[in-house]
Amino acid sequence: MRSLLIIVVALAIAGGRANAYPQFQLSKDQTCTSCHLSPSGGGLLNENGANVAEAMSMFGQNPAFMYGAIETPDWLSLGGDLRGQWGYLQAPQRYLIGFPMQLDAYAAATKNNFSLHATVGYRTHQEGNEALTTVWARELYGMWQSEPGSSYGLFARVGQFMPVFGLRWVEHPLYVRRYGGTPLFSETPAVSVSYITGQYEVHATGFTKNPLYDPVRLSSGGALYGEYRLGEHTQIGAGGMYEHQDWEYKLRGELTAKQYLPGPDLLLQAEVQLINPHVSGYGYRGLASVLMATYFMPKGVMIDAAWQHYDENLRIKDLDRDGFDLNVHWFATSHIELILANQVEFMAFGKGGPTGAYSFLQLHYRL
Question: What confidence tens digit (pLDDT) does each residue in 308-334 have?
């Protein structure tokens, strides 16, 4: 039982899936769709995305699915991500642990303006409902695109996927994801419309609680998020989300910003969410934020340094927490990435509880 508890805590803190790296937007290209088939990023890469993966890595290699050894017809795209990690966790007890993080397979079939997308893989199962929750379709949606094969235009989706909100961080332990509008495993039945150009993009999503099993997202609602690029190196964004369930409703508002400095090859990103839950008629305000600096080194190395802050209720003293992150990514080849992920977390800087920390070495293999 104790071993199971350790694994559950570790997965909650540091498990994950592979989204698009928002660090690559502005630093490598202007939009997520420049590298991905999905209008929100993540999952399957397009041809440009595969070329970026090869160029980013130290040793290159053919970036195609299975190194090009398995050819697929033009209408079919296949891929996948495998991740595992091992290391140290202090929560506040100290453990040395290792566990699988991600086992996902991707497929997309395209015909003219229409496409069908599926992401099937492993997730931590729910006790008593293992058949539906150990292996699941994290994403399963149909999409219509106004300009087939283009990174721009109008995109309409219906099915199961994550509402488009914020900077779409891959680092889901960040407070803006854990306590924001996109926690891990919160893909849900949804419809969305996205309009994307080189200068701006807008995403509107309506979503509902999954009726087939007890999901992470217990609410229904809607989200609106947009980004505007002030030239090639500067971007600002704003969004709002409304969620409701039987005993509460929740409002979120956020601001985002990015600034790329081409001289030092440095990207600065920031996201701030104001969270306003109302439980049984009582409302209060919370705050989640992150500031991250990403330095792109030669030889396929990327370093992230971040400070994040979360306050569940701004009216209550010493309820806040701060996290300091340092992540080192080494893109060895176009398919293999090693990540050293580190975090130290303080509850009201020692006044609100014990200090937490983790240090994990993660192996990521892209099919």
Answer: 999 999 998 888 999 999 999 999 999
Neighbours of 208 (CB within 10 A): 14
Query: 330 near 58, Cβ under 8 Å?
Result: yes
* C-alpha distances out from residue 344 to 15, 95, 306, Å: 17, 15, 11
Residues 6+ apart with CB under 8 A from 3: none
d(CA 114, CA 204): 19
Q: Residue 156: which H helix or E strand, with range?
A: strand 153-161
Q: 339-344 contacts: CB < 8 A, separation 24 or more?
A: 339/85, 339/364, 341/14, 341/85, 341/171, 343/173
Long-range contacts of 269-272 (CB under 8 A, 24+ apart): 269/22, 269/23, 269/167, 269/293, 269/294, 271/166, 271/167, 271/169, 271/176
Distance in angstroms (rounded) separating the CA atoms of residues 105 and 42: 12
Model confidence pLDDT, tens digit, residues 280-305: 778 899 999 999 999 999 889 999 99
* Averaged pLDDT for residues 158-163: 95
Residue (of 234, 18, 252, 47) closest to 139 by Cα position: 18
Q: Which residue has the tokens 């990174």?
A: 151
